[in-house]
Design a protein that fits this description.
heterodimer, A: alpha+beta, two-stranded antiparallel ribbon, globular, B: mainly alpha, Arc Repressor Mutant, subunit A, 2 domains
Chain lengths: ~300, ~170
């Protein structure tokens, strides 16, 4: 506990408030804290790091979306000012991100050497082209996982769109909520392999390891890998994060993480039901798609193409 | 983040986690919730650590984040939970005079969250009116009046006990 004198040294506070009654209040607070404090939680730092990385990704995703929207608006305004209305198929926009069954791509200005504002859709168009295999450098893994998710979208969702990197996607639920999907590899899983549930407390040479999650359900894959679906144990309300975790026979870990993308989701918001994740993980080619090209993502803000927005 | 940044974050957590959790406990009166508040704070801090130009500002950022997280939590809980007047049972971990401590906790719990945040920031964290106002996104005048009202509430609840605690 911090002592009064220690905390007040050199604080130079403005104590001109007539209601100021520092000594009484300090004594009260110290009396309240006069008890044995709980131990520092196990695995505090790893959990903080993991959630911090997720938060950073989420912010990046939101910022990218806002930028794209702003650029789109500016571009539209710019074209309107210049009165360009003719259509050119090769310059058409890809479907709006995350819009299911978007109508045929809206027309956009001709590709002539422009005197107006640059077409803000060029990068997105290139990305769409590259991701569909006609060019570009999008990683195979990004495309494969995107296609698999697109073709086998869990029933809670109605659409999928690209994220900020080839390792991120954005899913939209039927209830309108958005869920960020991100994949990662965690390296060797330690001495336990895949047969030990990540929902169990484990004893190691370094002491007890707290469970990684709850509600674990496991399933072996034909290649000997083990799949677990779980709700990670984090500080967010139960159900707002879900995960598929695959541990291969050589103990490498690959995970697909689902988290609400809203800045401040309501406590009742859900991501996806675990049985649906188990079904997804059992799809042919899931592990190959999950691990292929993992980590090849471009740095945020680079122009490396990404999978296009699409609908199931 | 660079290894140096990771290391400095580790050092910050080692040095400040306990203090953050204590402040959280004074705000909410529950160790589990205080842990959540402290962890939420550290997560937000980690997400931004590589952009903190002045490492010395981390403590202030963490303090502000903690208090705002508490206020946000209170807003969420207000719409989803029914308040319970019951106090937690004292545990074996409680040291001397647990009854008095529980009585004080109960008294603090009756102080409005906004007043309580002002009291904790000013009297426990030793923050000036201006710094408290910035952390709570309030005007200095509001902080002053909230502090006065919070103290008045406590005096009504505790009566002479507040002076006795200070004298003991």
């Amino acid at each position: 506990m911090s002592g009064t004198s220690e905390r007040r040294e050199g604080s130079g506070l403005n104590r001109d408030d007539p209601a100021f009654d520092a000594d009484d209040m300090d004594a009260l607070f110290r009396a309240v804290l006069d008890q044995q404090e709980p131990a520092t939680p196990l695995a505090l730092l790893p959990e903080v790091r993991r959630s911090g990385v997720r938060l950073r990704r989420r912010r990046r995703l939101l910022a990218t979306g806002a930028t794209a929207a702003a650029v789109g608006l500016l571009a539209t305004a710019g074209w309107a000012v210049h009165g360009r209305t003719a259509a050119a198929p090769e310059r058409t926009l890809p479907p709006a991100a995350g819009v299911r069954g978007a109508p045929a791509a809206p027309t956009s200005p001709p590709p002539a050497a422009t005197t107006g504002p640059p077409p803000a859709t060029t990068v997105a168009t290139t990305a769409a082209t590259a991701a569909t295999g006609t060019g570009g450098t999008a990683t195979t893994g990004g495309r494969a996982l995107f296609a698999l998710l697109q073709n086998h979208l869990p029933e809670d969702f109605r659409e999928i769109s690209a994220g900020t990197t080839t390792d991120d996607f954005l899913l939209t639920r039927h209830d309108g909520g958005t869920v960020q999907v991100s994949r990662r590899s965690d390296g060797p899983s330690g001495p336990f392999g895949g047969t030990t549930s990540p929902c169990e407390l484990r004893t190691t040479d370094w002491g007890p390891m707290s469970p990684d999650g709850e509600d674990c359900v496991g399933m072996p894959l034909p290649d000997g890998s083990m799949v677990w679906v779980l709700h990670p144990l984090t500080f967010v309300p139960h159900g707002q994060e879900s995960e598929i975790r695959v541990i291969t026979p050589d103990r490498l870990v690959y995970a697909l993480h689902f988290a609400r993308a809203e800045a401040q989701p309501e406590p009742s918001d859900q991501t996806v039901a675990l049985p649906q994740l188990l079904m997804l993980a059992g799809r042919s080619g899931f592990l190959a798609a999950l691990r292929d090209g993992l980590g090849d993502s471009p740095a945020p803000g680079s122009s490396t193409p990404r999978p296009p927005s699409a609908t199931p | 983040m660079s290894p140096e940044q990771e290391q400095s974050f580790d050092e910050f957590v080692a040095a400040r986690y306990a203090a953050l959790r204590r402040t959280g406990y004074l705000l909410c009166g529950d160790w589990h919730l205080a842990e959540d508040l402290a962890q939420t704070t550290l997560v937000k801090l980690y997400a931004r650590w590589n952009r903190l130009r002045d490492p010395e500002s981390a403590a202030g950022y963490a303090r502000t984040t903690l208090v705002r997280s508490y206020i946000d939590t209170r807003r969420l809980r207000r719409s989803h939970e029914m308040p319970s007047p019951e106090l937690p049972e004292p545990t074996a971990a409680d040291q001397a005079d647990p009854e008095r401590r529980l009585a004080l906790l109960a008294a603090l719990a009756q102080v409005s969250p906004a007043y309580r945040a002002a009291l904790v920031l000013r009297f426990w964290e030793d923050q000036s009116v201006e710094a408290t106002a910035a952390a709570l996104r309030q005007s200095p005048g509001t902080v002053k009046s909230n502090t006065s009202r919070g103290l008045a509430q406590l005096r009504v609840i505790l009566g002479d006990s507040l002076r006795e605690i200070a004298a003991s």
